[in-house]
Design a protein that fits this description.
The complex is a heterodimer. By secondary structure, chain A is of the alpha/beta class. Chain A is built from 17 helices and 14 strands. Classes of the chains: A alpha/beta, B alpha/beta. Chains A and B meet through helix 4, helix 5, helix 6, helix 7 and helix 8 of A and helix 1, strand 1, strand 2, helix 2 and helix 3 of B.
Chain lengths: ~500, ~400
């Protein structure tokens, strides 16, 4: 087992220093100086200076140290495992003056052979750095959560301004969150160490601000405090939990917290009043009529259902309109296709494009009167991909089919056909909820789904015939007409 | 903000607060478009905490607290004498957008009493979400309550705009529903959950957007006689069957103008806490519902020890566990070791042998863990078998409930 505790025993790397007792002083700019730290690490590593020989200072306190000199600059990048490279920027903003020294000690040990050091969370150094990382994450999180903007009118437009006091040097790390969220607004965040300003295009960091630079109120603050008070449940008062998550140090910049003392003071009497109060008789009459009407919301006719379908939006955007079913209620035979095509979408009627025309011809040959049948689609909106000027049909997904299934079920309820013909695999999926290959199931079939039970028949979709190579077309068409003849006979039999 | 709107806000926030759900998590990460507003971070953000210790993440309001239903546990039931109000769609949209711009909230959690009909109500809820998304380019979080009695296509439309849908089960058994919520029907609630569950799964498989943060539900604790064990078994069933993201447990709380058929006394909040802990054991600690049942006494969790500790005390023959050798499943059973600590142990022990001091740096629960584990330089000797172990580890009388 390796000794993971001490870093001073890693002698080999210090050899380049020879016998000279060198101390290096690194002076970084106040706050989170990631660039400065990176440059210093490069220089120190190039020179081979071990952590115990480096004195780090940041901010105005950079008193000169006797005998110490700055390391010579170096451009050679220092390679680090990904986890370590990610840890550094998360610790650099920490207020702890030791942060740079600890990070350099970590880098030194990793380079001395402890490549997986960060995986050993129980190591004292790793444990301490992880704790610092966690503190930064928490500080960032609290800034994202507890910062409050106030609106300031600004030359015909508006700007949102906030004052916040982070615990660590996190302004630059915290700002991108606000850009992502409030991209279309103009906003400024002021802190005692610096400010961030967004004008819709660019993020700029500037000098510190003052609390007085933020207006004293905002038109929505009273409403927000009302909300805060009203959403509090006095019967569950738990101050410890509140303070753990929202420490008092943040309160003075959060307008809603002014309500806290009164809420706490009144909590127990409000709760007691609720418990002691005798149950009251309802002062209003029982709204019997409204209750009866409430249960009566289902569409009462096919027209009412079609109205709902017409008003709804396509699940996949793009279609011009919903294409509703067509034909008499009570028709003996209902045909269910896949979804409207380009022509159907333009005209708002089912089966009017090339496939629909082919279906009409085949029906006529089989002796079926199209006008006596009900024709509809499993999916009511056209889905397509645009290629140049053409709109290329796209097959509906299984999820889309189930989304539209409710309507098909109700529609068939109203039409109440004796026989339902599924044209193609999508119709079969809609009617059975299962993917069944047409070749296997072609012919009479019983559709049972939820409350619907229909005598059915499965055949191909006419558009399939259009896609076949010419030499196969005729035979397939004749088989299709043969299917429709059986449909005609079955329909007559069931109706009679 | 004008006073009429403020007044409505007070009434309709008060009316919505008994829903425990506050999460703004689980949505895919999004950022605002060029002219849009709002983002989601994945984990969610709590923007404030009220003195009940609960988080304010979303603007949680009802569209209206007028209601035709008469559920005994609900402050808004039609026979209650509370003050009533109704927002317009635009008012909710304005409040959401203006609160959001000031960084008060992560988004909206909108629910409603049933007015006119379930369909009418559901349409209004969806219209709010649609207006926010379409007209304001709002990419913040939206949680919509689904009305299980509404037509299925309306529930499905809501999923196109919402990040999360929820249907509150409220009462875990059919008998309680019948007694306390006469207009509700267990079958239609479960049917709607199933419907939403399959739409979410399909959309995920087809990479479409449909309630991407999943669905959740809430059950009320203590309004009927259902045991803890039965509640947890019910939850395990909901997680398994409908793929629910969360089950919230809400200790029944006294409400203004309470109903006569409710119990007089609220259950201790500690009971709710224990249910959440047990729920986590099921979801993150590989406990089966039977294991959790094993942690109860006659179906109820002890209030002075957490369910994991209760299980360990009953199964002492499985301990102590060697932190340097045991598998993940067994480490997860050690009281005081959280799932994160266990993962750190597994990683660290690949490189080093862990002593007790090392373990202390990986968990804050060492005091509870000590009797149950072995480290490189430590054995609990007789501690694991001590008869007074439970008393030594039990929490001091709970301060969660002040009344």
């Amino acid at each position: 087992m390796r000794d993971t505790g001490a870093s001073g025993e890693l002698a080999p790397l210090t050899l380049s220093l020879s016998e000279r007792e060198v101390t290096r002083a690194v002076s970084l700019r106040p706050g989170a100086d990631l660039e400065g730290f990176r440059a210093a690490v490069r220089a120190l590593v190039a020179e081979g200076v071990p952590p115990e020989r480096v004195v780090w200072s940041a901010a105005a306190d950079s008193a000169c140290l006797f005998g110490a000199e700055a390391p010579a600059a170096s451009d050679a990048p220092v390679a680090l495992p990904r986890a370590a490279a990610a840890l550094v920027p998360m610790v650099v903003p920490h207020r702890d003056p030791e942060r740079y020294a600890l990070l350099y000690a970590l880098i030194w040990r990793i380079r001395a052979g402890e490549r997986d050091l960060l995986e050993i969370a129980s190591d004292p150094l790793v444990h301490r750095l992880n704790g610092m990382r966690k503190a930064i994450q928490r500080d960032l999180h609290k800034m994202h959560a507890f910062l409050r903007f106030r609106r300031v009118p600004e030359a015909g437009t508006e700007r949102f301004v906030a004052w916040f006091e982070p615990e660590h040097h996190i302004l630059e790390a915290a700002a991108p969150f606000f850009v992502d969220r409030f991209r279309s607004l103009a906003w400024t965040i002021l802190t005692p160490e610096g400010s961030a300003r967004w004008d819709g295009e660019a993020l700029r960091f500037g000098p510190p601000g003052r609390r007085e630079d933020v207006p004293p109120g905002d038109g929505f603050e009273a409403g927000w405090r009302d909300y805060y008070e009203s959403t509090f449940n006095p019967a569950r008062t738990n101050l410890r939990a509140m303070r753990a998550e929202m420490p008092k140090k943040y309160w003075h910049n959060m307008p809603e917290t002014a309500a806290i003392p009164a809420l706490i003071r009144q909590a127990s009497s409000r709760t007691a009043a609720m418990i002691e109060r005798e149950p009251q008789m309802p002062t209003k009459r029982q709204p019997a009529r409204a209750l009866a009407a409430m249960a009566d919301q289902d569409p009462a006719s096919l027209d009412a259902l079609n109205g709902i379908i017409r008003r709804s939006e396509p699940l996949v955007p793009g279609a011009t309109q919903a294409v509703l079913g067509e034909g008499p209620v009570g028709a003996a035979i209902a045909f269910v296709g896949e979804q409207p095509g380009d022509q159907e979408d333009r005209q708002g009627r089912p089966f009017v494009g090339p496939a629909g025309q082919l279906l009409s011809r085949a029906m006529a040959e089989a002796g079926i009167d199209r006008s006596a049948c009900y024709l509809t689609n499993a999916v009511k909106h056209f889905k397509f991909e645009e290629r140049g000027k053409r709109r290329i049909h796209q097959k509906p997904t299984a999820g889309e089919v189930s989304h539209y299934r409710w309507w098909l079920d109700r529609e068939l309820d109203f039409v109440a056909p004796k026989l339902v013909v599924a044209l193609g695999a999508t119709a079969v999926l809609a009617l059975t909820g299962k993917a069944i290959p047409i070749t296997r199931a072609r012919g009479p079939f019983r559709f049972e789904r939820l409350d619907n039970r229909f005598q059915g028949f499965i055949t191909v979709h006419p558009s399939y015939l259009l896609r076949l190579p010419d030499e196969a077309k005729q035979e397939a068409y004749e088989t299709f007409v043969g299917d429709l003849r059986r449909v005609e006979a079955l329909g007559r039999e069931l109706a009679g | 903000m004008d006073e009429t709107l403020a007044k409505k806000l007070r009434i309709l926030a008060d009316a919505a607060k008994y829903d425990a759900s506050c999460a703004s998590s689980g949505a895919p990460k999004r950022v605002a478009g060029k002219d849009g507003l709002g983002s989601t971070t994945g984990a969610g953000i709590c923007h404030a905490y009220t003195p009940d210790g609960r988080c304010i993440s979303l603007l949680k309001i009802l569209l209206t607290n007028y209601c035709l239903f008469d559920c005994a546990y609900c402050v808004n039931r039609r026979s209650s004498n509370v003050r009533r109000a109704k927002f317009t769609v635009d008012e909710v949209v304005t409040l959401t957008v203006e609160f959001y711009k000031r960084n008060y909230i992560e988004g909206l959690f909108l629910s409603s009493g049933i007015i006119k009909s379930p369909d009418h109500t559901m349409e209004l809820l969806t219209r709010v979400a649609k207006t926010l998304r379409r007209e304001h380019g709002f990419r913040g979080y939206i949680h919509l309550k689904s009305i299980p009695e509404a037509s299925p296509w309306l529930i499905e439309e809501a999923g196109l705009y919402a990040d999360r849908l929820s249907i509150n089960l409220e009462l875990p058994t059919e008998a309680s529903l019948e007694r306390l919520a006469p207009e509700k029907d267990g079958a239609s609630i479960q049917g709607a959950m199933e419907q939403i569950g399959s739409r979410i799964a399909e959309a995920k498989a087809e990479r479409r957007r449909f309630s991407p943060a999943g669905q959740s539900t809430q059950v009320i604790v203590g309004a009927d006689a259902t045991s803890d064990e039965a509640l947890i078994r019910k939850s395990a069933h909901l997680y398994g069957t409908f793929g629910l993201k969360r089950v919230y447990y809400s200790a029944f709380s006294p409400i203004p103008d309470g109903s006569t058929i409710l119990p007089l006394k609220a259950p201790p909040l500690q009971r709710e806490h224990r249910l959440y802990q047990a729920d986590w054991l099921i979801r993150y600690y590989e406990f089966s519902p039977d294991d959790v049942a094993d942690a109860t006494e006659d179906g109820m969790f002890a209030l002075d020890v957490d369910p994991k500790l209760a299980w360990a005390l009953k199964n002492r023959h499985r301990f102590p566990v060697d932190v340097n050798r045991a598998d993940r499943e067994m480490l997860l059973r050690v009281p005081g070791l959280g799932a994160r600590a266990v993962d750190k142990i597994l990683k660290a022990r690949r490189h080093t042998s862990l002593r007790l001091d090392d373990v202390a740096r990986l968990t804050s629960g060492l005091k509870r863990a000590r009797p149950f584990l072995i480290a490189a330089d430590y054995r609990p000797t007789a501690l694991t078998d001590r008869l007074d172990l439970r008393a030594r580890l039990a929490e001091p009388a709970a301060q969660l409930s002040l009344f």
